[in-house]
Amino acid sequence: MTDHRNHGHGYLSWSHPLARVANRHCRAHNEYRRSGWAGGIGSVACGACWEWAIRDDERVVIEYGVSRHQGPDIDVVDEIAIERACRGEQVRLTRVERSIAAAQLRDSENLTDYQIAHRLHTNSEVVRQALALADATTAATDLAEVA
Questions:
Q1: 79-132: per-residue pLDDT in tens?
Q2: What is the greatest pairwise CA distance in the chain?
Q3: Residue 53 neighbours by CB under 8 Å, 6+ apart
Q4: Contacts of residue 70, Cβ cutoff 8 Å, sequence gap at least 6
Q5: Interatomic CA distance for residues 24 and 91, integer angstroms
Q6: Model pTM score
Q7: Dist CA 77 CA 82 (whole Å)
Q8: 92: Cβ contacts below 8 Å, ≥ 6 apart
Q9: DSSP string covering 99-123, please?
């Protein structure tokens, strides 16, 4: 049976882990607004851009010896995403990454909670929670070093 939500391309659809990467590649070289580009395979990207994203990912797997079947790892922190978020780019961050970004903006740029929220494209309450997590983590690390 064909899944009409992704035009029959179940695996190469928006649910694929590399869909955003492939779409970003495709948007960079297709003037989709002028040419009527509809997103290619799975309404995401053309075949060449899917291949580019998949091959780049495979190179990382080989070069760094990463497991192919890796679930979300709460210990992994995307430092590039944190840098981009601190510059004001809208990126998805984990709770831990958001707390690191908020603490960096508070400590290095002396920003208020409201200013941090604006920079990270969130609200002040989320920033307060992120800073509380960062402070608790720092306190726990300090305690561990003393012991």
A1: 999 999 999 999 988 889 999 999 999 999 999 999 999 999 999 999 999 999
A2: 64
A3: 18, 21, 22, 25, 45
A4: none
A5: 13
A6: 0.53
A7: 8
A8: 81
A9: HHHHHHHHHHH---HHHHHHHTTS-
How is residue 61 written in tokens? 């797997």
Q: Is residue 15 within 8 Å of 43, Cβ to Cβ? A: no
The encoded tokens of residue 129 equal 């929670």
pLDDT band of residue 6 (cuts 50, 70, 90) is: very low
Question: Which pair of tokens denotes residue 147?
Answer: 């012991």
From residue 46, alpha-carbon distances to 26, 51, 125, 128 in Å are 7, 9, 40, 42
Q: Identify whether the C-beta of residue 66 lies closer than 8 Å to the C-beta of residue 60.
A: yes
Q: Are 45 and 13 in contact (CB under 8 A)?
A: no
